[in-house]
Amino acid sequence: MARNVIITGGGTGIGRAAARSFAAEGDQVLLLGRRAEVLERAGVPGALTFAADLSTVEGARGAAEFAADALRGAVDVIVHSAGGHGGREPEDDVGDDPLDAVAHRWNTNFRINTLTTVLLTEALRDRLASPGGRVLFISSIAALRGSGTGAYGASKAALHPYAFDLAKALGPRGITVNVVAPGYIEDTEFFGYEMSDEEYARRVSATLTGRAGTLRDMASTLLWLASPGAGHVTAQVIQVNGGEMPGR
Fold first, then answer.
1. Helix crossing, 57-70 with 116-124: angle to 10°?
2. Which InterPro entries match (predicted)?
3. Which of 152, 184, 193, 200 is catalytic?
4. How far apart are CA 11 and CA 49, in angstroms?
């Protein structure tokens, strides 16, 4: 039976790969993100799209209301892939004060990586399929070992206790909540630059599998966690990093 699947950040990278995989399973997919044109170009067969800033109450509420009108029945799966590195967001409002820059960096990361997930989840909480609903957060290896600047990793790490608390609250309804924490994944916009051969080799050599992660790795993991076969898996942080955390 086709499920209703909502994917944030569904126009690019991991979100788009997941959306295409769910659509291939015959599910009805709703793509959410800030850029309407990106969502429309995502190439996900049969997908609905809605553009909104999910880091705001208005945006999250609008997306939830659109889902209620556009989707028939409950929401079966939510994949939270919206977010990114706050250092690439506009800094027009930041002055010369270094503390202002710190505040901007931390606020921005929490807004785009934490609030986007929390607000939409809470807006859709009562509409999750019971039993059988699946809520999936995309975190990062940076949440487990740091990100160099603190802000990005911290904003992703904040999703972990929220997922655990949500799993406790929704478990009696037969709903699971899990976190997927990837390492380096090829072919995404996350890094925002053309990686040098030396940097690529460094990242690959840090894994135990001797290769970079792929969008298929992530999409396959998300599909499994959303499947009936993972119905007893909840409140977990699933690492998709080729063993980069323990290292060589």
1. 40
2. KR_dom, NAD(P)-bd_dom_sf, Sc_DH/Rdtase_CS, SDR_fam, Sec_Metab_Biosynth_SDR
3. 152
4. 9
Q: What is the 3-state secondary structure (H, E, C) of the chain?
A: CCCEEEEECCCCHHHHHHHHHHHHCCCEEEEEECCHHHHHCCCCCCCEEEECCCCCHHHHHHHHHHHHHHCCCCECEEEECCCCCHHHCCCCCCCCCHHHHHHHHHHHHHHHHHHHHHHHHHHHHHHECCCCCEEEEECCCHHHHCCCCCHHHHHHHCHHHHHHHHHHHHHHHCCEEEEEEECCECCCCCCCCCCCHHHHHHHHHCCCCCCCECHHHHHHHHHHHCCHHHCCCCCCEEEECCCCCCCC
- Angstrom distances, CA of residue 240 to CA of 8, 214, 221: 19, 10, 8
| Residue 152 annotated in active site | yes
What is the phi/psi pair of residue 167, to 5°? -60, -40
pLDDT tens string 64-115: 999 999 998 999 999 999 998 765 555 566 678 899 999 999 999 999 999 9
Local confidence band at 195 (pLDDT 50, 70, 90 cut-offs)? confident
Q: What is the CATH number of domain 4-240?
A: 3.40.50.720
Domain ranges of the chain: 4-240
Contacts 24+ apart (CB under 8 A), 34-42: 34/82, 35/11, 38/11, 38/12, 39/10, 39/11, 41/11, 42/10, 42/11, 42/12, 42/16
